[in-house]
Amino acid sequence: MAELTVSATTHPILDGDYASEWMGIEVVALDEGHATIRMTLRQEMLNGFGMAHGGMIFAFGDTAFALACNPANPGPADAGNITVAAGVDINFLKPAFRGQVLTAVANRRASTGRSGLYDIQIYAADPVAGTPTAAPGTAPAATAPGQLPTDLPAGELVAEFRGRSRTISKK
User: What pLDDT, on a 0 to 100 scale, did the predictor assign at position 60?
Assistant: First the structure.
């Protein structure tokens, strides 16, 4: 079952991840090979055209990718290993704007040996008054991997991110 949280302690890779902290990334759901995150676009995340900077969309998708690739509760078999990006592609489909809430839904598509393939969809929605923000320890929103939690506005698909992962030794 997916775990709902906004606490950085729910996934070890977020501990000390100052970029994700600065971006205001909130973890909505985690499961084996799946992550759903969200953040609100701020003024300093925009480019000269007044829309989300492509690098911000990329970094947001990359965080969802990393969360889906690495176990939230590493076991003995995971000790000494991390999973990193071997390569990625991103397609920007529509612009996103200041104040919109971005949601990234990451899912593992395949995994063989030390390699994996992940798809991440990134949505943008206007904020909805009264939309709940998760609190630590609350029950998970009704969702299955690959679906948006029911408390999130679906919004429009703004980017498709595909990541290829590789598990390596932590040094």
Answer: 98
Six-digit token string for 45: 């995340």
**In Å, how far are 5, 79, 82, 112, 135 from 169, measured between CA atoms?**
28, 9, 6, 17, 34
| Cα separation, 59 vs 62, whole angstroms | 5
Low-confidence ranges of the chain (pLDDT < 50): 1-9, 130, 132-143
Report the amino acid identity of residue 167. Answer: T
CATH code for residues 8-169:
3.10.129.10
So where are the chain's domains?
8-169
**In the numeric block, which tokens belong to residue 152?**
């999130």
Dihedral over Cα of 40, 45, 46, 51: its sign: negative
Amino acid code (one letter) for 33: G
Strand 34-40 and strand 101-112: pairing?
A: antiparallel
pLDDT score recorded for residue 145: 54
Distance between CA atoms of residues 5 and 109, nearest Å: 24
